[in-house]
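Study this protein:
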Amino acid sequence: MGIVTEYHTAVALIGALKSFMLTSAQYEVMLRIRSPARFLTMLRETTYGEVLPEPSPRFRVEDVEKRLLEHYYQVFGKVLRATPPSSKPVLEAMLRRHEVNCLKTLLRAVTYHVKSEEVLKEIVPVGRYDLDLCRKILGAKDLNEFIDSIEPDLKHSITPALKLFEEKGSLIPVEIAMDNYALIRMWDSLKALSTHDREVAEHLIGIEVDFVNVMSVLRARRLGIEVAMLPISVYRYVEQTLLDSMSRASSTVKAMELLKNTPYAIPAVKASKDPSRALFRLEVEFKRHLARESERVFLGDWFHIGTLIGFLNLKFYEVSDLIAMLNGKVDGLEVKEVRDILILYQTSQS
């Protein structure tokens, strides 16, 4: 009874929040709407109506994106507050990963001298990176000043990658170091969990670990950077030796073929069918795989941390899909082109 009592509040909240998520039927209708304004009108009839502005011919896509992401972070906050104290460090580490992604946006802006005003119009502050701190960090004149403005432990993790940045002229090694920093904290947060909680959490977070590691290696190999040179120190189903082999493969598709004996064989096969966009396709298929695994946690007992992690994954992908649909309509893409980049409800089409 202990674990049921511990998760009762969180599970009740997740049940209510999940009931407001869009259905596959709603996805299909929204996908086929051509007009961005009509799309927003229909979206306003869902749970997102409370955060979206009145449809206008002159609406800014960026404003809608911000409101959708702000909605997600509000939902994340509700779930975090309802999380049992014993599991809260895991969700705090997940939120830290979102904070790091926000910081990566600031990193690119500072490095490539994007005007602060332009960045602040579009960025979505999250967690400790509120608007004031984002503005302060954007005041950095260059990468070195940016590094000096962040937390000491994150600075320590990033510093070794600066040499690769100077050699390659690419932020990829620095961003990989930032991702690794976040993944370490997510993985370490699982150690204090009970056995059952830890098993389901390790599975879901482990998929994200593998996803980030594989994508990092494939992007770095384009720069001629081998695994030994990368700041990667957390692994799940794809071990360091396999990542090393992938970094040495003759092509991206050949590297993906090495995933054949991992849980990601099907995503890799699907991605390799489109060689010119193989890296992008693999990213989409990895996310679809994680979405399916996240949905599976709702098939049985809900009284564990997997319910919280799974819901937050699905909710984030729903928001990402809505942003993709809106941009697709604004850009005049065909239904098939938009469907190709969606994450949820795409099993039969993927």
